[in-house]
Amino acid sequence: MADPGPATAHDERARSTPGLVQDVISQISMLVRSEVDLARAEMQENVNRAATAVGLLVGALILLLTALNVLAAAIVAGLAELGLGAGWAALVVGLALALIAVIMLRKGQNDLKASSLAPTRTAKNLKRDAYAVKEATDGH
Prior knowledge:
Number of strands: 0
Number of helices: 4
Radius of gyration: 36 Å
Shape: elongated
Order of helices and strands: HHHH
Number of domains: 2
Structural class: mainly alpha
């Protein structure tokens, strides 16, 4: 093979550096695109999994409500067998379930108040940290 000569070797080196930079930028761009595609696919998979989980939870809730109806009817029937009139037995069971529901409702409402959801420990730590920074800067 023929020696390309000094001018051609210099041209190849000069051309190869921008070419290498362009290749690196292209590879980085492809890598970023691939990561974004992977993240998008993973998010879609997670959304599908969450939708399936919500469907299962709704199905379980429907079955649970049906079971509670059957159990309430069984309790009413049991009370009626013990001598309480069917109407009174249904009223007693209904009132007991309503009382339990009201207690659960109030507890849930109290737990969802903004003040109980606020990150109190984090706020306390931030105040302590701010005080420590202030002390450190005032001392110097």
